[in-house]
Amino acid sequence: GDLVGGSRVDLHQRFIEACKQPDLDAGQLPPRVIIFGVSALPAQMLEALSALSEKMQVLLCVLNPCRHYWGDIVEGRELLRQYHRRQMLKPGFPEVIDEQVLHLHAQPLLAAWGKQGRDYLNLLDKIDQSAVHKSRFELASIDLFDDFDVKGSGLLQQLQQQILDLVPNDPEQKTVVAGEDRSLVFTGAHSAQREVEILHDQLLDAFAKDPGLTPRDILVMVPDIDDYRAHIDAVFSLIERSDSRYIPYSISDQSAKARIPLLSGLEFLLNLKQSRVLVTDLLDLLELPAVQKRFKVNPESVPQLSSWVRGAGVRWGINGQHRSHFGLDPGLTQNSWISGLSRMLLGYLNGASGAFNEIEPLSEVRGLEAGSVGSLAELLNQLESWLGVLQTPASIDGWLQQMSEMLE
Hey, CA dihedral for 11, 14, 19, 25, is it positive or negative? Predict the structure, then answer.
């Protein structure tokens, strides 16, 4: 109960102090905690684990691509150079590397792509005392690296060994690659869809060449999985499960919004006061199946509604009151959603009969699909209502109740 309340920084400090108390009952803690497979942790988390290590065993398994100290081969080396180093310098490497010859001691790929790992290892060196662990485990070193014979290996394995041993880049030394070596391949594609199609073809080719290879042996990594999720489903689910070419797959590390599209709608509502509510924002909301069901929107009518919205000159802002949050006059409603809606509704009622009450009708709104304009009107009316709710202060329980109503 003492840890509840205050800011996150205050809570963190209370946790550290609680771990230092001599009367803390270690029996209430588990015997050990093991962190495995995490590429990096923030300093605050490492401080908390360090404090816990006084009362229980904490095993932190860290991936390191290089067996030697390599903080000096990257940018900002002066800030990263420490008197205490977890790893020893490679024999023959100078203690201080002159900036003019820095590139001669660097593995280019490690220098370019290893910044996050470098900073994390440096952070560990500030908090962790590796010399103490060596005596506890009766080991000469707690850093474990595997060696393998790279003779006759592919280009990828040779690069891995060079990074492991911190082999400098030598422009004069050429690497001979076998013509059939496919360990490292670069493929160009004009779109994400085509990338996934090429991947699918290459996987089928790999399975055909190696009968012992199974889908569970393969991991495909992309910069942002949410950008590729739809393309992966489109390509890999195209083939029926009964077909011998079907490849079982699963998509990991998706954001909650990608797994549950309705959360995108809830996030939009919660940010309504701060959002300008652009044309794309509201049209994206209308693409959510739950919203279409709630406001009786036919998915096939959304493209036509989108065309009418743009034809009505809608740009941003629900109404003048909404725009006032951005420093504009509340009476300035031109090109807002309420202005465009008025044009569409008047066009449906009067066609091209001329302006009414300074509203120019959008005569294109007609036919059976015009019902979607009524759905849009109901949605905008609901958004105006929620905008008023968001402007009203409430307790935590009150906000939870309002969020529940928003979802409903």
Answer: negative
